Amino acid sequence: MDQGKLDEAETGFREALRISLEVADRPGEGAARGHLASLHLERRNFPEAEREFNEALALRRATGNRRSEGVVLGDLAGLIAATGRPEEAERLFRQALEIHRSVGDRHDEGLHFCDFAVLLVSLRRLDEAAEAWRKGAGILQGFGDSRGLLRRAANLREACSAAGAAGEPRFSEPGGGSPA
């Protein structure tokens, strides 16, 4: 995404946050903080992204929005993994996946299974990674989410290359093809 669009998005998210705070709309505040966290993540401003994700998570929990809590946990897990804290990331992914299952949020479960597979590859736990990938890719294909699947396949390819597992046959996508 280009810098101008990111700046425009940040202005909008900050305005939404300001209004949410002004009218004491805690769910709105949680949404705005989650969007700001994602924007900071896109800009690779990890400390600010982590702060906003944690604020969003606290608000999602306080308002009882379990579906959004799962989304934030999974996104936070990806950030934590990117900052070199794999054990914490694994714990957060597992929490997110449990919430997705309990509330029936299959699409985000698929996304986060694929993201979890990337973490597991980086830890060289290839059998577990392959199982997570198969689950996530199958769910995303069921939704027809080729964009989400292709983006995650690229992440998996990169992780396999970095871990010395390029061309690993365990990561074949349901229906054929191999992202690794």
Structural class: mainly alpha
For the biggest sheet, the summary is:
none
- In DSSP terms (H or I, runs of 4 or more residues), the helix count works out at 8
How much strand?
under 5%
By DSSP, the count of extended strands is 0
Can you tell me the overall shape?
globular
The secondary-structure element order is HHHHHHHH
Give the proportion of residues in helices.
over 70%
End-to-end separation: 25 Å
The poorly predicted ranges are none
What is the average per-residue confidence, as pLDDT, rounded to a whole number? 92
What is the C-alpha radius of gyration, as a whole number of Å?
A: 17 Å
Give a quick rundown of the structure.
The chain is mainly α and 180 residues long. It is built from eight helices and no strands.
Description:
This protein has 180 residues and is mainly α. It contains 8 helices and no strands. Helix 3 (46-62) runs antiparallel to helix 4 and helix 5 runs antiparallel to helix 6. The protein starts with a helix and ends in an 18-residue tail after the last helix.
Task: Looking at this protein, list some descriptive labels.
180 residues, mainly alpha, 8 helices, globular
Give the arrangement of secondary structure elements.
Elements: H1 3-22, H2 26-42, H3 46-62, H4 66-82, H5 86-103, H6 106-122, H7 126-143, H8 146-162
Helix pairs in contact: 1-2, 2-3, 3-4, 4-5, 4-6, 5-6, 6-7, 6-8
